[in-house]
């Protein structure tokens, strides 16, 4: 998040911070199915409050934490997981078939390539793993060379150094003129994604960087779609969001989706939380910061 994005989320103080949450169910709405009292769940706390002792989550976009998975890590996968799943698989995103569906079989993921610009971000790392789960033949991450090993372990088939001066030619060397799907989580050069897309077929670029990146949108043509995906719009992407939250605990349980570089702040330590926010604001380190409000003593 940059300073403008923080301002977009925080209108006035005091404010309930934190959109990711895991915790124990202490009260349920009447219409809620499943999620018995006392169960350990994770979800996106959409009205904020992930850093509070109590918060409200929407049961449609929540899941029980698998017994073999850390509840701390599960909470840390909720917002980016939801956002990136919608970016890849919803009609408002790349519109790719949901993994293992009948449409996915017909689509033939194995012969397809995807480029992920900003593969080293939290969202990029989840995109790599979801692309691997879906079965993409080539998963090309554009990210720091120093983080390449982690991205290869997550399932990237190729990592192209984001500081290289010939990114386009390296990507074309790998995938030819075949890339029709690009997910951009953070890139600073608006010309890069359009340059990587197939000249012959065009394709779709989805970015998650607010506010709507008019610089990227300018590359729309009749063959090139450019979309901004807001992960908070789960209602507008109900089908994909529901599928995602149904499959997510299985992916965690099987080890298909995970976090690697994580810094856990134990307790609401103001200095530690401030330090984490400062790191997040500068997009530095490639580390996921999670605050464990309680349960660590
Ligand atoms: N639309 C939505 O609903 C939504 C939801 C969540 C997040 N977001 C937005 O998505 C963006 C990414 O968030 P995040 O939490 O995934 O990021 P993050 O984890 O904080 O990303 C940090 C990483 O970004 C990479 N990076 C930094 N500058 C870069 C650059 N110029 N080009 C390419 N990579 C760069 C670095 O990795 P390497 O050095 O390893 O490359 C760095 O470690 C933010 O703008 C955030 O606000 C939007």
Write up this protein.
- The chain is an alpha/beta fold and 297 residues long.
- It folds into two domains: 3-76 and 261-292, Alpha-Beta Complex (Quinone Oxidoreductase, Chain A, domain 1), CATH 3.90.180.10; 81-228, NAD(P)-binding Rossmann-like Domain (Rossmann fold, 3-Layer(aba) Sandwich), CATH 3.40.50.
- The protein contains eleven helices and eleven strands.
- It has helices spanning 3-9, 71-76, 78-89, 102-107, 122-134, 148-154, 167-175, 192-196, 214-217, 238-254, 270-281; strands at residues 20-24, 40-44, 62-64, 113-117, 138-143, 158-161, 181-184, 203-207, 224-228, 262-266, 288-292.
- The chain has a six-stranded parallel sheet, sandwiched between helices. A three-stranded antiparallel sheet has the order 1-2-3.
- Helix 11 links the parallel strand 10 (262-266) and strand 11.
- The longest helix is centred in the last third of the chain and has 17 residues, at 238-254.
- The radius of gyration is 19 Å and the shape is globular.
- The mean pLDDT is 92.
- Bound molecules: NADP nicotinamide-adenine-dinucleotide phosphate.
- NADP nicotinamide-adenine-dinucleotide phosphate (NAP) is lined by residues 1, 5, 79-80, 83, 118, 120-123, 143-144, 147, 162, 185-188, 208-210, 229-232, 280, 283, 285-286.
Question: What's this entry about, in short?
Answer:
This protein has 297 residues and is of the alpha/beta class. It has helices at residues 3-9, 71-76, 78-89, 102-107, 122-134, 148-154, 167-175, 192-196, 214-217, 238-254, 270-281; strands spanning 20-24, 40-44, 62-64, 113-117, 138-143, 158-161, 181-184, 203-207, 224-228, 262-266, 288-292.
